[in-house]
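User: Fold this; tokens only.

Assistant: Input:
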Amino acid sequence: MFEILFPFFVLSFLLLVGSIIWRINARKYISSGTVASAYDAWTEDKLLERLWGEHIHLGFYPSGERNIDFRNAKVRFVHELVKWSGLDKLPKGSRILDVGCGIGGSSRILAKYYGFNVTGITISPAQVKRARELTPFGLNCNFQVMDALNLKFKDGSFDAVWSVEAGAHMNDKNKFADEMLRTLRPGGYLTLADWNSRDLREYPPSFFEKLVLKQLLEQWVHPNFISINEFGNILRTNSNSAGRVIVENWNCYTNPSWYDSIFEGIRRPFSILSLGPLAVIKSIREIPTILLMNWAFRKGLMEFGVYKCRG
């Protein structure tokens, strides 16, 4: 009996400790500066990179399959999104803007496998530094610190604009869309994936769901969530191709990522232990938020939106 209950007691203890740390150290969105500070911290402590590799975003699991390595699922996600959005139709040498590039995982795939000339931007100086360190000499990737709501590029500078899981950190979704579309050349490709809520105006959240959403916003520096259709309508309003904005919900392909993101700590324990006791505490601290994310996405309170359109 003890052997059966022991894992339950261990998990309960970890969740209790994580919840206490979670409440004390909330990461509320105040400004773009708080987003930069959070990602600087996540990058400098190397915990996410050690556990999840070069990609912080979710993975792609065909038909919800679970027998796929988490890191491989993340790489597969990039290739699936390229294929779904039509970016693979662009010729080698095409200019790609990666908005919210993180430590450059997607940018390097776009450059290495598709021959694109990629510019990655992020608001985090630590991410830019690490992205440059990880990028082999000769690969057509360059990285800059830049605010996605104030892109320092001329109109029509890029053949495609790519963004994965960055929009939820933007406090002005209209400006976010407008800046990406402004820098896209006529006929260019916009490819985007993001965390969305369901339509909360049409289906108001219950009291419990409001509490969940509050925690999801406050723990990972999100100012607000909007639905897939809401952001799709923003793209239709701001772009010249209203009829060609295509949106889908990829929950069924990405949801296994949440449990896998926790299990990585079990599969690769020395990735955490090698960073010292503080890393263990930090990893435990994230578990309640990940479990809430898993619940919200499984129940449809949150949705994983993918978007494509032509400039």
